[in-house]
Give the backbone structure.
Amino acid sequence: MSGRLEWFKHNWSSVVTLTCIIAVAMVETLQETLTHTPSLGVSLGGAWNYVPSLLLIIAGVSWLMGRIRLGMPESTKQRGDYAAMLALASKYSAERDALKDQVAERDRTIDELEQKLRKIKRPK
């Protein structure tokens, strides 16, 4: 059950949008059917004419709210950016360690050369 709840937390705007669009289609179909079937003697008028527009506005607003998601650390983009930063940091750390090893090797080589030079320069 928790998997469904987690899915709904991330996709609620899509669910609301799709539900509103399906409801609009059903209301429009019902209005058309009742308009073209005068023998039933029933028609949807008055406020029912505004229901599809209202549902489409709700669908649009919920869709936008779900896409904006300002300040949510769970957003995919932010998680991707964080993973990229971690990868870059680990790469930097490895490169830094390699450079430290190279510098240490050069320092040892310089020390050895200086010692050899001192032996050569000593007067006998």
